[in-house]
Amino acid sequence: MDPASKHGRTSNSSSSANQTTNNTSNAPVKKSAKELKAERRALQERQRAEKAARAAGNAAVPSKKPPSGSATSTTVGSTSSTSATATVVPSETAGSAKTIDSKQKSSHTKEINNKQVDMFSHLEISKGTNTSLAPKEIHPAILMLGLQFSEFKICGANARCIAALTAFKKVIQDYKTPEGTTLSRHLPTHLSPQITYLVNARPMSVGMGNAIRHLKWEISTIDIEMSDDEAKQLLCEKIDNFIRDSITVADRVIVEYGLQKIQDGDVILTYARSSVVQALLLEAHEKGIKFKVIIIDSRPRLEGKKLLNCLVDAGINCTYAFLHAVGFAMKDVSKVFLGAHAFMSNGALYSRVGTAMVAMMANEKNIPVIICCETYKFTDKVQLDSFVMNEQGNPNDVVNISTTLTPKPGLLSEWLNKPDLKLLNLLYDLTPSKYITTVITEVGMIPCTSVPVILREY
């Protein structure tokens, strides 16, 4: 064979081999399904992280870097992160502070929930409200009210019910019926998230539940042919009528009935603070009746101090003591007047925790126990104890041992760090009907066993 031809074939074969190698190197490398899936997952995680950062008001949080297999996606991600950082530099510190504060609150809430007493673990501890995370359809008046409920700025069944109905009036006044529907059909749907938000802030009282059911019934009876402005005005009048008839006028009638039970020389004992009992004692003092009042109070809310200040300012002779001294205070008492959160259909009284102890102690010494309660607080539910249904307050409230507005942590301040220690802060208890002498309502003085009759007749 000719050497030249042999050399030519060799060079041709080598050039073709080099060309094949170059083509192979220039051709795009195909990625496996696992690599593509990993890249998609990384992209989704990065987008999810950026969305969460924007929602928390902290868009400057750097996003996760995508895999090094895609140079284009890495460039885009770094560019977007840089621009976002440059945009939010002025509010970066505030946003991060909010994020850290919310994380600390959530972790603290988890610690408290993990240390609940086993017997009461079914009772959820109130988590408070976060107005920044509230749905868009929540009215500003409801946002403010939920915050006041969760922080116990508004306490008492009557005060909470009046505040809730007043807030619902504002919601109704600002409501606009969508096209293709009617007010009587769509307004209950619009009120449902507002009610849910209040319930999440703090469990609903029995009186609030009855008032809301009455409001929904009034909405269902509205004439379809009525204009929206007339219907909203009518509903606002119905709300005002309910507050007037079931609370304001009812309290005046209860006070008139209660004056028949107070005579000169009486020593009246009351527990915590009831707005109806307070009005009764003030009215009796204005009528010139000479009597003394013993106020029994308990931590952590110390509601009796507000009643004490009010009665002392009016010139009534008062004695103030804590719940552990109720046995000693009972020796001079002639009558016991108590308020109510609700009355069950079996005649049991659902009221501020400690009420059952006061009623049982008075019954033991044959002292009449008189309850002042409006009929809108009556319910057809039956409850036999305080365990199945109750409201659990924040255990940290028990830590405060101060009797003034300035908090003072006691020996329990580090209770979360002690694995063998749990705190319980129940807000209500149940008093059986046998410890109650009579109930003063706006329909008259009745035995507590007549609650089902009132529910059926009214």
Automatic annotation (TrEMBL):
GO MF: translation initiation factor activity
Pfam families: IF-2B (PF01008)
Cellular component terms (Gene Ontology): cytosol
Main location class: cytoplasm
Biased composition (Low complexity): 10-27, 54-91
Basic and acidic residues bias: start-end ranges: 32-53, 100-113
Chain segments carrying region Disordered: 1-115
Keyword Cell membrane included in the entry's annotation: no
UniProt xrefs under InterPro entries: IF-2B-related, IF_2B-like_C, M1Pi_N, NagB/RpiA_transferase-like
Protein family: Belongs to the eIF-2B alpha/beta/delta subunits family.
Protein name in the entry: Translation initiation factor eIF2B subunit delta
Species the sequence originates in: Dentiscutata erythropus
